[in-house]
Amino acid sequence: MIILINQNQAARYISICIAHCGTLAALPILVAWVTNNVGGHTKRAVAVSFVSAVGQIGGVLVPQIYGEIDKPTYRQGYVIASILLGCTLIVTCILRFCLAKENHRRDHLSNEDYDREVAGRTCDRHPDVRYMI
């Protein structure tokens, strides 16, 4: 938000560096979260590839949202990036809540429910699997 408010070039540059460090640190955490919560080699490979592909879309979108028309403040680009970061935070919180709820449900299965769920379930669908949160 410093980028949107402040017109001092040094403050803007420092805030971009700090924001960049935070977004780069999230990538290994996201990949680890996906690989730990998706079972099966093929399913895991597809999930990691999907996460990587979605991340690479930024290379196509960034030149479109940081256009020449917004020079030198690039207000539209920063607002869109902030909104997308906020959406990412919300989706992450929702996913964490859903995974915790599923772990809780699996922890409290009765013997009959457990036997019914075990039949034909493999990988991350098996009731013994707990999601990492």
UniProtKB/TrEMBL annotation:
Gene3D superfamilies per the UniProt record, alphabetical: MFS general substrate transporter like domains
Record key words, sorted: Membrane, Transmembrane, Transmembrane helix, Transport
Q: What's the source species' lineage?
A: Eukaryota, Metazoa, Spiralia, Gnathifera, Rotifera
Parts of the chain that traverse the membrane: 12-34, 46-66, 78-99
Name by which UniProt lists this protein: Uncharacterized protein
Keyword Cell inner membrane in annotation? no
* Source organism superkingdom: Eukaryota
What does the record say about its membrane topology? Multi-pass membrane protein
- GO MF annotations, alphabetized: transmembrane transporter activity
How is this protein annotated for GO cellular component?
membrane
Where it sits in the cell: the answer is: Membrane
